[in-house]
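Can anyone check this?
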Amino acid sequence: MPVPKHPEEKVGYNQALELAEAVRARLRGLYDVKLEEAVEKTAPVKAGAVRAGRDLESRSAEYMKFLRARVQLPPDSLVVIIDDVRTTSTTIEALARTLRGAGAKRIYAAVVARDALRRAFTCAVPKIWEDHSNYDDAHPREAARLAALWERQILTRRGATTLGIARSVREGRKLVEILAEELNAVNEVRPYAKAERLGIVPVPMDAPEYPPNLLSYGYGEVYPPLVLFRAGKPLDKVLRSPIAVVGTRDPTDQGREATRRIAALLAGRGHTVVTGLAAGVDREAAEAAARAGGAVVGVLPHLLDGPSALSRDAHLLFDLAEEAAVVAEHLLRDPAATRQRLAARNRIIAGMSHAVIIPETRYRQTRWGMKYQVQFGIKAQRPVVILRPQTDQRDVWDAYEFFEREGAHVADRPEDAVELAERLARLQPSG
């Protein structure tokens, strides 16, 4: 059902009707679907009178004075209200009430655009909003408080760890219940609200899009983040059978070619490539997967280079791939913590993936991020596959031999690496 317009309102083009026609055309043949203008406006809506109401309840009641049901709907019908933009939710709320009065029991709303942040939302009619997957209107405030709690490290209760919290979440408990005491100490959430206007969404452990692999990650060794920050596609829409591809920032020509081949194969087999987006192997993997039409998720140490500046690496990925998201466990850049965060983000790369493939890396005595990548994966029982070097450069061989001793599995060709990663991933315990 398109949002109705009175003939005296914006005479001519009805964008809601055009959208509803497109939806019907797409669904026709798959479902028994009908475009029904089930509600009409009896007069032009007096915007001033509607907006005068301080809350959704009063605004909706005023709006309903201009609405009338045209038909009686069967109780088993499912109604989808179609509109172009949603701002205060008053129109949808009033239409939903009218439709319920006409007999509808299941009512959804689909819009093209919505405002980035709703500070407060209370649905006046119970059970209208049946599916809040990914991003519901109660999300920003609670998610922002949880993000502040995580970044300020206020998990102060004796014995409280994210592994224990993740276990409770998997059992069905909500974070606001588990962490009620700590959340009472959190009031300042403005940085997170501002970031959400930039398209960055806090994703707590109990959010539907939090990666299930990461939620069950650790096995007593590695701790998953309480909250991730995400920009781009929702993670549960883009993380399809994820496999990480990571490696040196300075690959040989053979390493670059192997990386491109591995990423293209993974994309062609329906895997999402997870990587750190650093120059070298990571970026080659992202570019090759995107060229092959695959999905890419980049894991960064932070998402904002400044208060209003999305990370350059995030922009790079969004320029490359249509099916893409970037995540980080920290919002703002902190130069003093960059090295620590770069190492820590490797557990997220391994944690959200089924397996890790290393096309090529170079041995370093100190500050070697790849060492953490492999050790995080192996500690948490994620299979790590390393490609046998196709060069005679000593530091590449030293790295390969180091990781083989650490427990990484060896593959001779890119095709072997992909098949081995798939096979080992299927053997992993679930949950």
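Reply from J.R.: I decoded it. DSSP finds 18 helices and 15 strands in the chain.
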